[in-house]
Amino acid sequence: MKRAMIAVACVLFAGPAIAQSLGEKTGVNSALGVAPATADFVKEVAISDLFEIESSKLAEQKGDAQEKSFAQQMVTDHTKTSGELKGLVSDGKVQATLPTALDSSHQSKLDKLKNATGKDFSSDYNSYQVSAHEDAVSLFERYAKGGDNSALKDWAGKTLPALKHHLDMAKELGKAPSVGQSKQSK
């Protein structure tokens, strides 16, 4: 515990750019509610969108009816946000480099989904969707509140409601409605 406190203190007192990059990588920024650096935000969003699109394409093939419907929405929505982010970068409104491939963590999850079938696929896909959207909501909330690029900050704020809706939908994956109850929109 003492080492963890020292590590957090080191990150907090390091220079802002170092603290944000290291903090985003280790999850410290999320725990402390600190906005990510613009470069970190762009990288995380681009990788997240790519993972959403690729994993959901698999779910369109392998998932049950509920997962297929959800997956179609994810492919559509995350293709849109990916295009918007690319537009902000290519217009010069955001100075950042867009990654063109998944990082090793997301690639290993995608590889696991590629090899999974049936209930194993559903369990992993559903779990990944909840986790990915929880992370995305946190990331977008923090950048919308404290990001240092106004165009990207505005975009994060406008995109956040859709991500919160995705998270609500992801939490419903695999849950059958109770007898006598119908699913209603919130």
Would you give an account of this structure?
By secondary structure, the chain is mainly alpha-helical. It has eight helices and no strands. The longest helix has 29 residues.
Brief account:
The chain has 186 residues and is mostly helical.
State the main characteristics.
186 residues; disordered N terminus; single chain; disordered C terminus; mainly alpha; 8 helices; 77% helix
Secondary structure layout plus pairing:
Elements: H1 2-13, H2 16-26, H3 28-32, H4 38-62, H5 65-90, H6 104-115, H7 118-146, H8 150-172
Instruction: Give me the Rg, rounded.
Output: 18 Å
Question: What is the helix/strand order?
Answer: HHHHHHHH
**Quick check: average pLDDT?**
84
Shape: globular
